[in-house]
Amino acid sequence: MTPLLAALIMTSAAADPKVFYSKSFPGSTPAYVQITVEKSGQVEYREAADDDMPYKSKLDEAEVKEIFELCEKLDWFRRPLESGLKVARMGEKTYRMENVESTGEQKFNYTLDESGKALQDWFERITESAVLRAQLERTAKFDKLGVNKALLQLEASWDRKRLVAPAQFLPMLDRVSNNDSYLHMARERAAGLAEAFRNVAAKPKTE
């Protein structure tokens, strides 16, 4: 066990160790994201650093384990990740450990490190999931005819295995499927997705 991993375990009772990620990319949508993943699995997603109402979700134990193992492979962000190659700007990313005695932080545009890229993919999936959730909530409230399109996009992301913490969508999916003010096709699609997400949550995790 590495010293920092031991610190993660020892400090978890007081303040949950967390991985911090941000990406600033002016001109893109969203132009800024900030994500924290706690050792408990709690996730907070923001599109502004001062946002006091973040989207919240929860990863399962296996997902959290994979994320923190990647952080360990990256020496808890104590070694450089930037490739130094002349590539297009892809947004400034920041990785940082928080609530631990010995921490590290790295900022980079592009990395060749395979663990760094794998961790980046996790955060991109969290971002995609949060954006789809916001879109579904917005259309359900303000554009009922657009709900089926939002559900199609959610379904496509699910099929591509890009969604994380699917349980976060269940309240909205149930709301749509049980409300006859939405199109019948939207209600059926919402019900089907809700069933699929619940089946995944109920399925025993295997090593």
Model description:
By secondary structure, the protein is α+β, with helices and mostly antiparallel strands. It has one domain (3-202). Helices cover 44% and strands 16% of the residues. It is built from six helices and six strands, in the order H-E-E-E-E-H-E-E-H-H-H-H. The protein has helices spanning 3-11, 61-73, 114-142, 147-159, 170-177, 184-202, and strands at residues 18-24, 32-38, 42-46, 55-58, 92-98, 105-108. It has a six-stranded antiparallel sheet with strand order 4-3-2-1-5-6, covered by helices on one side. A hairpin with a 7-residue loop joins strand 1 and strand 2 (32-38). It starts with a helix and ends in a 5-residue tail after the last helix.
Inertia-based shape: globular
What is the total domain count? 1
Distance between the termini: 20 Å
Biggest sheet strand order reads 4-3-2-1-5-6
Secondary-structure-derived class: alpha+beta
Helix content: 40-55%
Our count of helices gives 6
N-to-C order of helices and strands: HEEEEHEEHHHH
Would you report the number of β strands? 6
Low-pLDDT segments: none
How much of the sequence lies in strands comes to: 15-25%
Q: What's the average pLDDT?
A: 92
Overall radius of gyration: 19 Å
Biggest pleated sheet: 6 strands, antiparallel
Summary tags:
single chain, about 210 residues, alpha+beta, six-stranded antiparallel sheet, 6 helices, 6 strands, about 15% strand, globular
Short description:
The chain has 207 residues and is α+β, with helices and mostly antiparallel strands.
